[in-house]
Amino acid sequence: MPEVVRPYRGVSAEDRRRQRRNQLLEAGLDVVGEVGVAETTVDLVCRRAGLSKRYFYESFADRETLLTAVLTGVFEAVRAALETALEDAPASAEERMTRLVTATVEAIATDPRVSRLWVEANHQPVLEQRRGEAYTEFADLLVSLLLPGHEDDPDARTAFVLVVAGTTEVLRRWLAAGSPGTTASIVDVLRRVGLAVTSEFG
Question: What pTM was computed for the model?
Answer without folding.
Answer: 0.92
